[in-house]
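ARCHIVE CARD
CATEGORY: sequence design from structure
SOURCE FIELD: tokenized fold
FIELD CONTENT:
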């Protein structure tokens, strides 16, 4: 009896078993690696949901510098939306990644891990006093989703108050509390009631905090809005108002946390402890990771199965969370942020820059011309920066390992750009 022939191909480039029709639909094979345009490659296979790319292709990074395929060296003042917290190729981060990959690449939350316990302890101790437990997840949106779920469970209330200009993520609940998300929301309806209030307006905030409000959620420094710091007086007043109304206070520190304000979190910088705090972005230095920090009161009553995350708290993420915090503390990076942030404010209000806002290494350069023009001209001078939701604000989110010479280069470049 003849055995059926196998259709398995050991060579992944062998397309001989594909139908002519599928090959016709897919089009011609793409160029070999390194031969074609990355933007062309992406447009061939990925959904067209991102704005036109910055016209460079990074292929390598070292410190705060990224190197492009066409041989340019660029100072990265944007850090991949605040993710490259320790820059590129940091030896501690690379060693932790390699060592953990060899030891245990993955295990789920169905088993206990000493590494997970160490990472959670390190994060809780790094965070504001009074937040005593962590829930580990994969991203900022997932962290905010779970923070909201905890607020609803704890208060048994039905409404959330958020601020105009806020960005909290693109999943169903996180997008529902994101300002002007109706332009791309996509779901038939939001999952709960939301009230937006103007930032800085304490009267409007007090009026919105009714007996049905589970939580007020805010970014102490709004990132997407253009690096808008809410300020200590407003945040302290918000804490008082939520306590008076029985609502919880959630700090979304996905972008402004992890040392970026020159303090572990903006909560410590402003001296206000929320009931819940979310973090992600640079939490694991570029590896997907997020977390929710909560108080004992919010954690009380939770039981097995109330929350869950398949990849949250995986060994790779935990090894890197532990390493990132250790590096921030041992290398004095928060002191560096405070010093260089002051230097940027002192030297970079030149050329097209009319004022500088934000805090730490989450800064907005308010410009006399559209920000996208300034971003393009800075790129021509070897500097990566970013835009924001405000068309007149260039956003800076550099890695915490930035050096004084990089700030000097930025100041010189801005001075050479016409107002």
């Amino acid at each position: 009896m003849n055995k059926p022939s196998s259709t398995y191909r050991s060579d992944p480039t062998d397309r001989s078993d594909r139908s002519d029709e599928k090959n016709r639909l897919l089009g011609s094979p793409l160029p070999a690696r390194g031969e074609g345009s990355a933007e062309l490659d992406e447009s061939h296979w990925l959904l067209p949901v991102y704005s036109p790319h910055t016209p460079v292709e990074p292929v390598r990074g070292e410190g705060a510098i990224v190197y492009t395929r066409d041989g340019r060296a660029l100072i990265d003042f944007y850090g991949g939306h605040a993710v490259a917290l320790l820059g590129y190729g940091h030896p501690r981060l690379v060693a932790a990644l390699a060592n953990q990959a060899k030891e245990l690449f993955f295990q789920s939350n169905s088993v206990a891990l000493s590494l997970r316990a160490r990472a959670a302890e390190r994060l809780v101790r790094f965070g504001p006093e009074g937040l005593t437990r962590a829930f580990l997840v994969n991203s900022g949106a997932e962290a905010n989703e779970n923070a909201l779920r905890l607020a609803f469970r704890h208060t048994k209330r039905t409404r959330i108050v958020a601020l105009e200009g806020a960005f909290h993520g693109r999943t169903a609940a996180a997008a529902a509390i994101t300002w002007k998300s109706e332009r791309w929301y996509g779901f038939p309806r939001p999952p709960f009631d939301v009230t937006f209030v103007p930032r800085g307006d304490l009267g409007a905030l007090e009026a919105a905090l009714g007996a049905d409000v589970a939580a007020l959620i805010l970014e102490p420094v709004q990132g997407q809005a253009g690096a808008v710091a809410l300020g200590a007086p407003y945040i302290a007043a918000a804490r008082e108002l939520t306590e008076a109304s029985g609502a919880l206070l959630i700090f979304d520190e996905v972008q402004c946390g992890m040392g970026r304000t020159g303090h572990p979190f903006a909560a410590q910088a402003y001296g206000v402890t929320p009931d819940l705090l979310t973090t992600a972005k640079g939490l694991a230095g570029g590896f997907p990771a997020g977390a929710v920090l909560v108080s004992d009161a919010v954690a009380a009553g939770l039981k097995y199965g109330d929350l869950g995350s398949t990849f949250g708290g995986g060994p790779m993420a935990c090894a890197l969370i532990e390493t990132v915090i250790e590096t921030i503390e041992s290398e004095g990076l928060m002191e560096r942020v405070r010093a260089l942030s002051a230097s940027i404010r002192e030297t970079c209000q030149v050329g097209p820059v009319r004022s500088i806002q934000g805090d730490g290494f989450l800064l907005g350069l308010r410009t006399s011309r559209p920000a996208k023009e300034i971003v393009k001209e800075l790129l021509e001078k070897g500097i990566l920066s970013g835009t924001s939701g405000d068309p007149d604000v260039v956003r800076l989110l550099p890695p915490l390992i930035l050096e004084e010479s990089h700030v000097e280069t930025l100041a010189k470049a801005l001075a050479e750009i016409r107002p």
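CARD ANNOTATION: The first helix runs from residue 20 to 26. Residues 1-10 have pLDDT under 50 and may be disordered.
SHELF: design records, drawer C
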